[in-house]
Amino acid sequence: MSSPSKPGRTGAQNQEVFRRLPSVEELLLAPRVAALAPRATRGLLLEFVRATIDHCRARIKAEGWTVDDLERRIAAGEFLGEIEGRVAREERRGVVSVVNATGVVLHTGLGRAPVHPEAAEAMANAARGYCILEVERESGERNQRDDYLSDLLSRATGAEAGIAVNNCAAAVLLALQTFAGGGRDVIVSRGELVEIGGSFRMPSVMERAGVRLVEVGTTNRTHFPDYAAAVSEKSGLLLKVHASNYRVQGFTAEVGAKELGALGREHRVPSCYDLGSGLLELADSKPLSMLGDEPRVREAVASGIDVVLFSGDKLLGGPQAGLIVGSRERVDQLRKNPIYRAVRLDKVGLAGLERTLELYLSGRADEIPSRARMLVSAEELKPIAEELARQLGALNGISASVMADRSQPGSGTAPAVFLPTFVVRAQRAGESAAVLARRLRTGSPPVFARIQDDALLLDPRTLLAGDFERLVTAFKNLP
Ligand SMILES: *Cc1c(COP(=O)(O)O)cnc(C)c1O
């Protein structure tokens, strides 16, 4: 291997630099490091001191520092600064509340759907204390945790029964394994073998679920006879998957849930529709008509397909969950699978989901934050953007203007749909948009925004109660 140090530097010189490195003990005793004690445990400080020294060693090698280089950096307090920086970064890790100014309503990176405050309260209460989860009040006997949820799902979707699992990915796994585990055929269109974010690929999931994938049709066109020809005594499941995050346009054809359900009934093969997003529209709430042909849960159920799967935290606007609704017979089959026990929903999610569905059923669906943020019009957002631009523009070094732009539903939902909005285009003198964006992300409170043409775009569409003020505070706190 060739020497990593600068040409002309000898191994001996390099060794002398390493010898002059401060020791772990020295650094731990330095007043600036000792002062960090209230903010980090001793074990953590030790880890950061060691990591700082290792980092320094790597740089000595890579950059060929001389003894002078090292001494200069020690004198400037560079290593102490690095240790302080590591402590500060640690304090910002974990699930921390942020301001979403990206305009992406269901932002997977930022936790998808913010739940309704009443759902959040129900979740906090369930987490905080004991709750009725698997016990019958009248008799005191054990019962099923999602009896009530099943009733709510029936009323909301028109299905006979329903159950909830950890997320829609778990719902897919459970359905595949229940109906076709042990090597039975799952018949699915070539145009629907989707990959969802987070490396959830339909073919790989099928493999792991122990089912045999039988692809029918072509990427752009699949017809009823393609499915019909594939049905045999080895068929376990007829599967339809909503192409959530992409669109095949032009010369296309797909088979509807109704036809697929009928084919399944004729041959006594279960049928399943993985909707993903789960757009639930009830008569007494404003329809999210801007989402165009995004499939509706009630229509999918009414099609007569056996089971319908959808996420709790996409368009439904509830906590993370996977909902499975359908005929009582098929839902019971899913419930009896031991895998259900491994992927079922916890009490916190269940409490939030019950409250979310109650809001739908009492005609208050429009209050659910993700729906409300989708429904708010550009005209309503314009004065908010103007006020934000005025307040930010009054701060030192910030220039801000308002322009028309487009927000997005997000989470792989309706990728071709854009929602008209007005954004604040903000810039800081002498600073690139990328640097400003990073300062805001790591600032207090943290803010996430879009970048376009070297300017930061702040979209009021995704600001929740109190976020406007928090956003202005974040700008005031910029270093
Ligand atoms: C999003 C999605 C999933 C996965 O849902 P999660 O709740 O994120 O697990 C599965 N199938 C489809 C079609 C999806 O759109």
Would you give an account of this structure?
The protein is an alpha/beta fold and about 475 residues long. It folds into three domains: about 80 residues, no CATH class; about 120 residues, Alpha-Beta Complex (Aspartate Aminotransferase, domain 1); about 250 residues, Aspartate Aminotransferase, domain 2, CATH 3.40.640. About 40% of the residues lie in helices and about 15% in strands. It has 20 helices and 16 strands. The structure holds pyridoxal-5'-phosphate. Pyridoxal-5'-phosphate binds next to helix 9 and strand 9.
Topology at a glance:
Layout: H1 11-19, H2 24-29, H3 31-34, H4 42-63, H5 67-75, H6 78-91, E1 99-100, E2 104-106, H7 117-128, H8 147-157, E3 161-165, H9 168-180, E4 185-189, E5 195-196, E6 200-201, H10 202-208, E7 212-216, H11 224-230, E8 235-241, H12 257-267, E9 271-276, H13 297-302, E10 307-311, E11 322-326, H14 328-336, H15 338-343, H16 347-361, H17 369-375, H18 378-393, E12 398-410, E13 419-428, H19 433-441, E14 447-448, E15 450-452, E16 455-458, H20 467-476
Parallel strand pairs: 1-14, 2-12, 4-7, 4-8, 8-9, 9-10
Antiparallel strand pairs: 3-11, 5-6, 10-11, 12-13, 13-16, 15-16
Residues 167-169, 172, 194, 196, 241-242, 244, 274, 276-277, 311, 322, 412 line the site of pyridoxal-5'-phosphate.
